[in-house]
Specification:
The chain is mostly helical. Helices cover 47% and strands 3% of the residues. The strands form 2 sheets. It has a two-stranded antiparallel sheet with strand order 1-2.
């Protein structure tokens, strides 16, 4: 091409690129309201965003992959964990992990109940934004693992009463503490440890299936004509899965053989009724 043709080509290519860019920008703005569920931005959501900024949550966490990468991405946290878990966690994060063992430094922010409720509303709205798969690999909240112990329940209780060296997540806990936090402690420390076979990250199947979204899945299975168990609600379904693992096997799943689940059927004997209640409360928070 001569100079005139080269100049003309550059002008036309730039003009076409600019038109495409403007068109895409206009189309994006046209869809923002639908993609972000703008109609669901309530005063509580707006107040929750103010709480997010007030306590500088973005200094450690990310939303839509933007922010600091010191702590997990919270884009879908409201769907992964649910309101009950988030409310208990925000009240006192220290009940859910041990700093020395887990290397987590989530501070207790002393949020008011109103601030907690507003922040949950904000995170719930965020979780329902159609982010079209971005970020492609968010930082998943898998839950830190406390290694299981071979101590019996009585030995564990005795060790805790003696002020032993067990981290908070594995120490015997009292009824004054939040049942979801108690359930999470049991999930990590009961023998055999639930974490040995189950992940709480979506799609991460181990010896047992991932428990992410368990409450939602339980609701769907209860409504399915294939369900042959005796549970009537989500809590009952989870309790049945713990006490009678073979009462119902998910069709097509490779976690049972000849109608017998590979999950131990000993928890109903090894755990006290109130401990099973706590596990049910924790697992029911997985929306």
């Amino acid at each position: 091409m001569n100079k005139r043709q080269t100049r003309l080509f550059a002008i036309v290519a730039t003009a076409l690129s600019a038109l495409v860019f403007v068109g895409l920008t206009i189309d994006s703005h046209r869809q923002f309201g639908t993609l972000t569920n703008a109609q669901n931005i309530t005063p509580a959501v707006t107040a929750g965003k103010d709480v997010w900024h007030k306590y500088n949550c973005v200094n450690c966490h990310t939303l839509f992959g933007e922010g600091a990468y010191y702590a997990p991405d919270l884009t879908k946290i409201a769907q992964h964990r649910g309101e009950a878990y988030l409310r208990a966690y925000m009240r006192d994060p220290s009940k859910f992990y041990d700093e020395k063992r887990h290397r987590r430094l989530m501070p207790k922010q002393d949020l008011s109940e109103t601030e907690i409720g507003n922040l949950i509303s904000f995170l719930d709205w965020i979780s329902k934004v159609d982010n079209q798969g971005w970020p492609p690999r968010p930082i998943l909240v898998t839950g830190a693992t406390i290694p299981g112990t071979d101590l019996s329940g009585e030995q564990l209780q005795s060790k805790g009463q003696q002020g032993g060296s067990l981290p908070p997540g594995a120490r015997p806990v009292t009824q004054e503490q939040n049942p979801i936090a108690l359930g999470q402690a049991l999930f990590r420390s009961v023998a055999p440890a639930c974490t040995a076979c189950h992940s709480v990250a979506p799609g991460v199947n181990m010896a047992g299936p991932s428990l992410a979204g368990l409450a939602t899945q339980a609701q769907q299975r209860l409504a399915s004509p294939d369900y042959k168990g005796s549970a009537k609600d989500v809590a009952g379904y989870i309790r049945e899965s713990i006490e009678q693992p073979s009462a119902y096997s998910v069709p097509g799943a490779m976690y049972s053989a000849n109608g017998q689940s590979f999950m131990p059927a000993t928890y109903v004997k090894d755990l006290k009724p109130e401990q099973i209640d706590q596990l049910v409360a924790y697992l029911s928070s997985f929306k």
